[in-house]
Design a protein that fits this description.
The protein is of the alpha/beta class. It has 10 helices and 26 strands. Strands 5-4-3-2-1-8-7-6 form an 8-stranded parallel β-sheet, with helices on both faces. Strands 17-20-25-22-23 form a 5-stranded antiparallel β-sheet, with no helix packed on it. It has a 4-stranded antiparallel β-sheet with strand order 9-10-15-12.
Length: 592
């Protein structure tokens, strides 16, 4: 269908802006989620989410009609980027809505499947970057109720069904990118667009839609922003303030740089180590693409999914696993089969995931560990991926006395004994589960774990390797990735200025540290921001003569005022970035 005229948009925008102001005035006493609250209040607000550990992400839109193909051609990237990757004009893309008729969609069955899989919440794309609203938007006629033959509000059906079945419900909303609205960010290919300001887009579309989602769909547990871009302070504040409409809502960290939200989001990849931030999640598609894409058979195995869940929980995070309904509103059999299989594992082992906290151990050769703390001791859940052939499971550095040990699968008691600073659990010859068998240890007193020292080189420097970095890649860009050159790992193919690196680590002493990096730079120079997220420093590195010529470069000094967990990032500077290869970063303490 055709877009509205600018005059119509402006009048509508003025009316909605006035309504938004009046509506928010009634909520002036309520601060946006996370503001002006005590640590105890914040903990209470996030408690359900931290306890849940496992949720369902859903990417769905009109692109599913063709499975992300344009005129019979497969396009790069995930299917929901079809409009962008195909350079499809707005008027042409609107015609896909006329073919969107997912008559196979059943909200009751959909929510029931998530529940059967052991998931505790659902987050779904209310509007993705293509600008299509998967609900009956009052400010955007390009929506599922008005623009499709389906004419049903999918978001309303899911919100109601989640309430009935006891799951929390949340919305994904692309607040900055909108390839359909003339003020949205991201559409540089349709030359017929009569541009308006981004502020106008936020006033007349984004803000009214967010308000509608937060006032007309019952209790909303999560609001999930995505792809932050530069917007005016007025627009940022307008969108952020709307979260006060749901008193206990939780938000992620993707509204904008100055809006950290309640938790950090990692995309596709699991951090190698527990992040320094206490609240975080990994979102990951069950196959290769976020949205349904024809020919995408890259489904993760049940083994991978279960072990991912245990790995993430062992580091204190949540697993938001994405599924992608087809154009008829159903999931592919591969997705359904895997969700049911994960659910079977969770029926037996859910106790080791829900309401648990991160492992007290650094690394375990045989698997992972989650825990629960009580006033008189702790329960350790040992997730054994590799069942010991000799029947001896070594729990390194556990100084506590073990009160009892059993298999979670059937309650079989097992024996434990002390061997120096370790505990050895004697296990039966056969593993209860081929993927992840859980052994439960109940120990007395406050946990006492003998940890190994931090990884230091021969000069006493703390070494942050390329392998231990978390690579934040932009979904639309060329992916920076780990590679090996001359037998040494490095981060390479770092051409996208939106991609960045992050390390989580511990320092044993506060003080001033000089930061060194082993890098290879081909161009004349490159600039990036380096340091803790709260106080990055601009750094320039000069050419080393090629991508295969590495040199040790000083990046300057940083100060850590407290010992303990820290975070360091390297983020390209827009306009001044040239690709680099990076092998490692070293922190050398040089003073108090």
């Amino acid at each position: 269908m055709a877009a509205r005229t600018r005059t119509g948009r402006t009048i509508c925008g003025l009316l909605i802006t006035t309504f938004c102001a009046l509506a928010l005035a009634g909520h002036a006493a309520a601060a946006p989620a996370g503001a002006k609250e005590t640590p105890e209040q914040r903990a209470d607000r996030l408690q359900w989410w931290k306890s849940a550990r496992f949720g369902m992400f859903v990417h769905w839109g009109v692109y599913s009609v063709t499975g992300g193909e344009y005129k019979g051609q497969k396009l790069p990237n995930s299917a929901e980027w079809m409009m962008n990757r195909g350079g499809i004009p707005i008027a042409e893309y609107e015609q896909y809505a006329a073919r969107f008729n997912p008559t196979g969609f059943d909200a009751k069955a959909f929510v029931a499947l998530a529940k059967e899989a052991g998931m505790k919440y659902i987050v779904i794309t209310a509007k993705h970057h293509d600008g299509f609203s998967m609900f009956g938007s009052k400010s955007n006629p390009f929506n599922v109720v008005e623009a499709t033959p389906f004419k049903r509000d999918i978001m309303k059906e899911l919100a109601d069904e989640c309430q009935r079945q006891g799951l929390r419900f949340g919305f994904y909303y692309s607040q900055a990118q909108d390839w359909h609205h003339p003020g949205g960010i991201g559409n540089g290919w349709d030359k017929s667009i009569r541009r308006v300001s981004n502020d106008e887009y936020v006033r007349e579309k984004a803000a009214p839609e967010v308000e509608q989602l937060l006032t007309e769909y019952g209790p909303i547990g999560i609001f999930w922003w995505d792809t932050p871009r530069k917007m005016s302070q007025e627009s940022f504040d307008r969108l952020h303030s709307l979260t006060s409409l749901q008193e206990d809502i939780i938000t992620n960290d993707r509204l904008g740089d100055d809006y950290p939200g309640d938790y950090k989001t990692f995309e596709r990849n699991i951090p190698d180590q527990a992040p320094s931030t206490p609240d975080w999640e990994v979102c990951m598609p069950i196959s290769g693409s976020w949205g349904y894409k024809k020919g995408d058979n890259d489904f993760k195995s049940t083994t991978t999914l279960v072990r991912n869940l245990a790995d993430i929980a062992s580091k204190g995070g949540n697993y938001l696993l994405n599924v992608s309904p087809t154009g008829d509103g159903t999931l592919l059999p591969q997705a359904t089969e895997r969700l049911k299989a994960v659910g079977q594992w969770m029926q037996t082992n859910g106790e080791s995931i829900y309401d648990t906290t991160a492992s007290p151990f650094n690394r375990l050769k045989w698997g992972r560990c989650t825990k629960r703390i009580a006033t008189d001791g702790a329960t350790l859940y040992l997730h054994v991926f590799d069942w010991p052939e000799d029947g001896r499971l070594v729990v390194p550095g556990l100084k506590n006395n073990v009160q009892s040990a059993h298999l979670l699968a059937d309650g079989t008691l097992v024996e434990s004994s002390r061997q120096g600073s370790d505990v050895v659990v004697t296990l039966p010859s056969e593993a209860p589960d081929a993927i992840d068998s859980v052994v439960v240890l109940k120990v007395a007193g406050e946990l006492d774990i003998q940890s190994g020292p931090a990884t230091l080189n021969k000069n006493g420097a703390l070494v942050l390797t390329a392998e231990s970095a978390y690579i934040h890649n932009n979904e639309a860009g060329q992916a920076a990735r780990l590679q090996t050159h001359d037998g040494v790992a490095n981060v390479g193919y770092w051409t996208d200025p939106e991609a960045w690196l992050e390390w989580s680590f511990e320092v044993d002493r506060p003080g001033r540290y000089e930061v060194w990096a082993e890098v290879a730079v081909e161009e004349e120079k490159s600039r990036f921001n380096m340091g803790p997220p709260s106080r990055p420093k601009s750094v320039e590195v000069l050419s080393t003569g090629g991508y295969d010529k590495y040199a040790r470069k000083s990046l300057g000094n940083l100060r850590f005022d407290l010992a303990g967990k820290q975070s360091l990032s390297i983020k390209p500077e827009s306009g001044s970035w040239q690709p680099i290869n990076l092998r490692k970063v070293e922190l050398v303490r040089v003073g108090n």
